[in-house]
Amino acid sequence: MVGLPLPRLLLAIVAAVTLLGGVGGLVAISWLDHNATEAESSDRLRLSSRLAESHVRALHQAGQEVLARIGEYYIYRPGGAGVRPWLATLVEDAPYIDAVRIQNLSGETILSTDDAAPLTETELADIRTALSQPGRTVIGILSSEAQLGGHAIVLTRAFSAPSGAVLGVARILVSISYFNDLYRDLIPPPGAIFSVLRRDGLLIARYPMPPNSPRLDSAAHPFTKFAEASEGVYQAVSVVDGSNRLLSYRVLPDLDLVVAAGLLTDTVFQDWEVRTQHATFLVSLALLLMLGLTALADRSMRKEFLLSRSDKENADNLAAALADKDVLFQEVHHRVKNNLQVISSLLTMQSLHVRDEVARNTLKDALDRIHSMGLVHQTLYERNLAANVDLGAYFGRLAEGLASSYGSGKGGVTVQVDASGTLELERAVPLGMLANEVLSNALKHAFADGRHGNVYMSLHCEDGRWRLVVRDDGSGIAPEPGRGIGFGLIRALSRQLGGSVQFSAASGGGTMVVVDFPA
């Protein structure tokens, strides 16, 4: 048996190594890109679940205060005189509250601003829980079958006489639009979900809401996953609609709730699939070119191998063919080297897609947003206010915290705040998040070159409207601002406040952001 000549053997080895290296490199880069894409989406989902937590806590805080007012008003009105008109006015003036109901210790309705239907077993259980734990606000639901106006979130709290004896419960029915409006304004991608579940399996709210309100098995998935850690990100098939999603969750033990945000895996990896297809096409094209040249070289060397076995009389022709072979062999080596370099360059350019540093900054932005909301409640508590936030103190502390967080002292950036007045908690939270986004954007981007600068923030109420102005003398506004998550959140929060936002270049250089909303 005659073996392959050494040149053909080397050519076969080079072809095999090139093919395996190209395919292996493509697989490795695609795998790294896949992991980076999943990590980036996970960080964004963590931010979304933190936003959902803040939204739920705002509802709980506001509802707790309203229920306390209802209980106090009722117990000091013997026989309930004048309570019904007051409750009707409360429902009319309060956004998202559909109805108020007062029940006695037996669950019988004493007063109601709507036509209260017979209580469901879930409602009775929540009432019993509230009666057994005075001071706790129980969050439950009223399904669309039991509520004429559709699904409602129910907050239940016991109220007591001055002697301390529990008299009954006050309940407020909050429209599901409180939950849906914010997430609709964020314009999430198709298949994205935001949900609030009670740890006993009750689905409190979900965007988008399923046709019915299923009660999930608290001993099965996803609650077994929630029991593993207080927060996390994982991929699973939804028990509600059967879709495969990447999901971020946070357990809120003090509220007995779990909040979650999810994206379809098809959406998460859509761009990665496109990048992988492009890379596969380019690498395949290069490998096909390489294999074509290898086949041509192999054909030539095969011919030379056959000629080498011919009779002595063909020696002259063989010598000429061998000379041609030497030239061709050198050309093949040259082309093989060039094609290997092309493949290397293609794989290097493709690897640039996975060097993404967004994940490192996303957590910091999320923490700043959470910090801005925490300052609202901290200001309330420190100044002994019930529901109105001292905006002067709040904005001063917000600016101080952000300036310290972004190290503005080292860059010579001065932050000046001129704010006055008070605002109710329900609007102070989104206003604080909005101010956090605008001010942090100025500190991060306006003075990126490290030069000295100033940031001015003012908030005042004139002629029945609030006006927030953040102006810097930094590098100026981008040619096309407002394409990132932060700018989308600014616009969504402005709409939640019932106002508008404008981005413009400041006179003398820099950027100015103006938010205007009704008082």
UniProtKB/TrEMBL annotation:
Q: Which domain of life is it from?
A: Bacteria
Q: What class of enzyme is it?
A: transferase
Asked if Plastid is a keyword of the record, the answer is no
Is-annotated flag, keyword Acyltransferase? no
The family database entries (SMART domains) matched by this protein are listed as: HATPase_c
State the reactions this protein catalyses: ATP + protein L-histidine = ADP + protein N-phospho-L-histidine
Enumerate the UniProt keywords alphabetically: ATP-binding, Kinase, Membrane, Nucleotide-binding, Phosphoprotein, Transferase, Transmembrane, Transmembrane helix
Q: Which residues form the signal peptide?
A: none
* InterPro entries in the cross-refs: HATPase_C_sf, HATPase_dom, His-kinase-like_sensor, His_kinase_dom, Sig_transdc_His_kin-like_C, Sig_transdc_His_kin_sub2_dim/P
Task: Describe the location of the Histidine kinase domain by residue ranges.
Answer: 331-519
Which CDD domains does its entry note? PDC2_DGC_like (cd12915)
According to the record, the segments passing through the membrane are 279-297
Q: What is its EC number?
A: 2.7.13.3
Instruction: Name the Gene Ontology molecular function terms of this record.
Output: ATP binding; protein histidine kinase activity
Protein name per the record = histidine kinase
| Natural source organism | Magnetospirillum molischianum DSM 120
